[in-house]
Specification:
- By secondary structure, the protein is mostly helical.
- The chain has a domain of about 70 residues.
- It is built from 4 helices and 2 strands; from the N terminus they run E-E-H-H-H-H.
- A two-stranded antiparallel sheet has the order 1-2.
- The longest helix is centred in the first third of the chain and has 42 residues.
- The termini are far apart.
Length: about 140
């Protein structure tokens, strides 16, 4: 006994005239939102939001980038913006010229910083001189 193998599984059935169910829902939803915007804002104020919502509904219904529905791109965009992002730092193996120059500059500064350290008695003398100068201002 032979069985018929279903073909064209990826093609959605046209239910509402030339539109599939998803296309019809996107277009009907967009038209409904446009109508609500028109009734609440009027034509003058609502023209731009109506065009944006209508354009988005048309994109959802008919635009298929890379043979995938546009809603997949919208979903991926939302996930990208609202999910936590994991940043991984990778240490570079080789040293660039800038890094070598920076290390040389740090090596030159380091001895100067070591010489500038104050011993206990010098620090006490400095604190005393600052106190004396501060008392003269008052």
């Amino acid at each position: 006994m032979q069985f018929k193998v279903p073909q064209f599984l990826e093609i959605e059935d046209k239910i509402f005239g030339p539109f599939t169910f998803k296309q019809f829902v996107y277009l009907a939803g967009g038209a409904g939102i446009c109508f609500v915007l028109y009734r609440t804002l009027g034509f003058a104020l609502g023209a731009i939001p109506i065009l944006v919502v209508g354009g988005f509904a048309l994109l959802l219904a008919f635009y298929r980038p890379n043979s995938k529905p546009f809603i997949f791109m919208v979903e991926a965009g939302f996930k990208y913006f609202f999910q936590d992002k994991l940043y991984i730092w990778k240490k570079e193996r080789g040293m660039t010229r800038e890094m070598l120059e920076k290390k040389k500059a740090e090596a030159e500064i380091a001895p100067i910083a070591r010489e500038a350290r104050l011993s206990g008695s010098k620090l006490r003398d400095l604190a005393w001189s600052l106190d004396v100068l501060d008392l003269k201002k008052q």
